[in-house]
Amino acid sequence: MSSKLGIYLFSPSSAVKDPESVARARERLQAEGFKTVVDRAALSTHQRFAGTDSQRLAALSRALKQKQPIVMATRGGYGLGRLLPMIDWKAVADSGKRFVGHSDFTAFNLALLAQTGAVSYTGATAVADFGGEKTDELTTALFGELMRGELEILSFETADADPVDCRGILWGGTLAMVASLVGTPYMPRIKGGILFLEDVGEHPYRVERMLTQLWQAGILQKQKAILLGHFTNYRLAPHDNGFDMPDVVAWLRKTVKTPVLTGLPYGHIVSKATLPVGKKVGLATEPGMVHLVLDEHDHGDAHDEGGDHGH
């Protein structure tokens, strides 16, 4: 590629703990063919946040006005929820920027979708995926392919998927953030969608409690499918007596009657896909495999270029 795609890095949530991680992320992104520009407040700290609320809002304003086409959060953490009412969502959508983040950034992805219908992205972040001692090849490849418009189908193995063949709006993110938006103007009202969820550090009973909230709010049963990513870093207690994530999945299937598919390579994990939030996609299963059609091209030679990226 002759011209490098540019990425503007900003910190809308928690403070970056190690400035070196941002420097490493810039080197790694450069090596993948991305030019990077860092917002001047990206390394700011106020309490646990990357600056005061007004500083973080100002960083978003700068991100909209600068010229790089991709705007990436340095990290998640906590802090976007309290900014949602102060953000000019129409200006965000009109900027035409591609916003990418993960975890706490789910609040931004879903608020943008609810308020404007615009597509944004979830998966890779600068520090977690490009700022460590080493990078994961699959995470790096999937991010690059999606940003360059080369990723048409994301195929992944599943040990447990209800058969499905459908199309719908892909939406979701980190479960705790999705649940936190119920009843607010920042929760998308999507019927016939494909909802994907993951979380970290949440005990299975808490995962089930949040799913119960989404079910009793009438959200889960309106979807065509529920895609489950990875639920990681939790610790069971002796009195769980065997109660674990598979029991939550079984309960979900029995209670909600919406097809449930596990194994989505997405979550607080090393190998993860970057996904478009708010885009109409296709979803189909075959025994042991799920195919998520992210880009449906009519041109006949689609399968020749980049196409299918297995996991």
TrEMBL record:
Question: Which keywords accompany this UniProt record?
Answer: Carboxypeptidase, Hydrolase, Protease, Serine protease
- Name the residues annotated as catalytic in the UniProt entry: S103 (nucleophile), E198 (charge relay system), H268 (charge relay system)
Which positions carry the signal peptide feature in this UniProt record? none
Which parts of the chain are coiled coil?
Answer: none
- A GO molecular-function descriptor: serine-type peptidase activity
Q: Where is the LD-carboxypeptidase C-terminal domain?
A: 167-282
Q: Name one Pfam family in it.
A: Peptidase_S66
Q: Which residues form the LD-carboxypeptidase N-terminal domain?
A: 7-123
Q: GO annotations under biological process?
A: proteolysis
Q: Which family does it belong to?
A: Belongs to the peptidase S66 family.
The entry's protein name is LD-carboxypeptidase
What is the species listed in this Swiss-Prot or TrEMBL entry?
Bordetella genomosp. 9
